[in-house]
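Quick one:
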Amino acid sequence: MRRLIFTTLMAVILCFSLTANATSPVECDRECLAGFMNTYLKALIAHDSSRLPVTKNVKYTENGVRLNLNDGLWHTASGMPTYRVEVMDEINGQVGLLGRIDENGNNNWFAARLKVEKGEMISEIETLITRNISMAPPPEGGPDAPEDPHPLMMQIIPEDKRMPPCKLMKIGDSYFTGLDTDNDGANVPFDPACQRRENGTTTANNPDFPEGSMQWMGCKAQFDTHFSTIVTDIRERRFIADPVTGLAFGWGYFDHDGSVEMMSVTLDDEMTDVDKMMRQPFSFYIAEVFKIMDGKIRQIEAVLTTVPYGMESGW
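Output:
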C-alpha cells in the first residue's frame, strides 16, 4: 500500500509539473528534437562522440550502467537504426526512439532517450540494447519478427483528439500499475484490439497462436488472468510523451524475486506451477511505447533485456 500511495503521489506531482511546463515556450520543437536524435545516431555509428553537442556534465547510460561517451555501443554500432518508433516530447525537451540497430553484424533491439537543454545541447543519453547474448532467441519455427512497427504507431492524432502529455503518461503508467499492484486490467483503459510486441514478437492478441493461449489473448484478458503476480515490483518508472502521435514512452524495471510458486494463465484462475526459470531473482530493464487513441491503449511496442535483480537504472 505504501508503494501504491507513493506512485500515485509522484503521478500527481508529475502532472502538476507538466501543466506548469506547458505554459513555457518550447525551446526545441519536433524538427529540432528529430535533428538531435539523428545527430546522435550519426555520431554513434561514426564512433565519434565529439560530433555530438553535449553539456559538460552529460550523463550516458547503457543497460543501466553509467559509461563514458565513446564506450560500449559507441565502439560497435555499425548501421543506422531500423524499425523506428520515435517520440517527440517538446514540452520537456526530450526525444525517444525504439527500433533495431546493427552491432558488427548483430541486429539487436534498441531504445534511446535524449534530453536536450535549451535547444542547444544534450545533457542525458539513456540507451537499452537487447543483445543476442542476453536474451533467448525466439522459438524455432515461429514467425519472423516484422520488419516495421505497426502502422498505427506513427499515425498522427487529429488535433481535436490529442491528449496532453500528463494524461498520456498517466495512462501509460496505469499499465505498469495494473501489472504491479493491481494484478489485473480493471484500471487500465485497454482498447479491445490492443496488441503488444516485445522485441519484435507479438505477445498479446496474436491470432497465430492457439486459441486460449496467453499470446492469443487480448491485453486486458492477459492482465485479468493475474499472471503478473510473478512481477514483484515495477520501479524507477520514467515517461516522456508525444501528443501529436499519441505516444507515451515509459522506462523502468520489472523485478521478479523468484518467490512465487503458483500462478494463473487462464481467466478461470486455474493455478499452475511457475516455470523454474522464473523461480530465481532477476529483473527486466524495459522501454515500452504505448499508442493511445481516444483515451485507450491500442498498440504497444516494447524492448527489454534481463539485468541483475534489483539493479539501479543510473537515473
